[in-house]
């Protein structure tokens, strides 16, 4: 079994937020010798459980997830670091004679595993602060317009309401004098040394996905999302400048606690931001070559995914 697993492809289970990825992955753990590696840029943070949709303690006992709760929210995480961490976990899982199952919705991380990473410069705190000041004074739309002037490809790809990616793309140009798109096109390093099998689960309609998103956001509020964010808010060392606090849901609750918006506005904005995130994720999936798609609300999907994984692993 160990030798067979060492040759098996890495199974990557993707999908938009609230599409049922985690539930399917947990079912697969009960039926196959697989171990889960989380592919989620927010679940890496400790103390951010409810708003990230992190599995509860009982679920994690039945289906442990690697690469969750590995950072303090004051820290930053990158696609490059994720790749290093993920390949380490993949090797460890295989050494145990089991199969890696990568699950999540951070499409940038999946792409980095598939394509490798271009040689982009390290972050520059001074330039990053300049971009943040521009956003604070004129809004992220101004940052998007400035990016469009120097890197129209990246500006077309990155939504104006995606501060983290906007900031990074403009930062790369200001550091190097070359656009991120040009750098990514000319050099790729560390591409995946083996076959990755990409699967996606999505609801049968956009309407159903939107309903799930709204229902889940209200469930998060009932489960204590505001109190969770309040504990982070009261630490005193965190702010909306950090990637962790800019995560969907946390950003809106933080603004509510800051007195910037009302509770009702927070709820509305949180749901809208989550829908926008899901839309971006679906856009990524539409352009993903070789993707095998499954309908998450079909009772046949677990068996279909199970059969596919068995077929590609033989």
Short description:
This protein is of the alpha/beta class. It contains 15 helices and six strands.
Largest sheet: 6 strands, parallel
Tell me the β content. Answer: 5-15%
Briefly note the structural class of the backbone: alpha/beta
Overall, the morphology is globular
The helix content, as a percent range, equals 40-55%
User: What is the number of domains?
Assistant: 2
Provide mean pLDDT, rounded: 92
The count of helical stretches stands at: 15
Q: How far is the first residue's CA from the last residue's CA?
A: 11 Å
| CATH class category name of the largest domain | Alpha Beta
Instruction: Outline the low-pLDDT stretches.
Output: none
How much is the radius of gyration in Å? 20 Å
The CATH architecture of the largest domain comes to: 3-Layer(aba) Sandwich
Number of E-state strands: 6
Write down the CATH topology of the largest domain: Rossmann fold
The neighbouring-strand order within the major sheet is: 3-2-4-1-5-6
CATH superfamily of the largest domain, by name, is P-loop containing nucleotide triphosphate hydrolases
Written as H for each helix and E for each strand, in order along the chain, the element string is: HEHEHEHEHHHHHHEHHHHEH
